[in-house]
Amino acid sequence: MLARIKEFLGMEAKPKEEASEQEVEKVAEEEKAKPRIGYIHLSGCTGDGMSLTENYDILAPLLTEMIDIVYGQTLVDLWEMPEMDIALVEGSVCLQDDHSMKELLEVREKAGLVVAFGSCAATGCFTRYSRGGQQANPNHESFVPIADVVKVDLAIPGCPPSPEIIAKTVVAVLNGDMDYLQPMMDLVGYTEACGCDLQTKVVNQALCIGCGTCAMSCQTRAVTMTNGRPEINEDRCIKCGICYVQCPRSWWPADRINQDLGL
What structural domains and CATH numbers belong to the chain? Predict the structure, then answer.
């Protein structure tokens, strides 16, 4: 499974030489194996992990039949981090937290696919407001998206992500569905998340169609529609980026469209 993921991401190519019978059998066994999923919690509220584990009506087939969860705080009784096909990393990383920094680097080494799981990991979300000085660790003041520290392959937005997007993303990875995953690949490294992006990058560019998707997707009700255009309540905005990501006019794959049309 790890080899398939690396091949899917273009990290390594198929060998051109003819495979031996033993190698063919080994690959066949790997094809039957369930992907090994790990869950890593850094600086966040654990809401993303709850979204993963407490929606069994939607995620039951995924969690019980399609994958093996091999690592995760509270999920697996295991201290040493194993090799994983996919690592779901929740929370931003604190640059002053040596343990978190070391764990994140180890995740990148042990996982074939690293996923920024939720808006804190993907964009920084509400941890952007942290200024340090809290009683437990007053020196913890710099929190950044994990893509600022390690290479990230996919980003799943949301505060927390919906069970549906979790299930669809994992299934798309297993099936190698590039069309579905492309927006999540594009989101990696996008750290300007804020409701104001709707104004500057959509409305001001005459792209808004007044569909209201941004307002419906906002999980803090910071976006309202007035005269067919979004308005942002800055006091409610937590900079999760979900409104901009969900906007149908924020992602326009012009290059891919031209390629498909032969232009």
Answer: 2-187 (3.40.50.700), 196-260 (3.30.70.20)
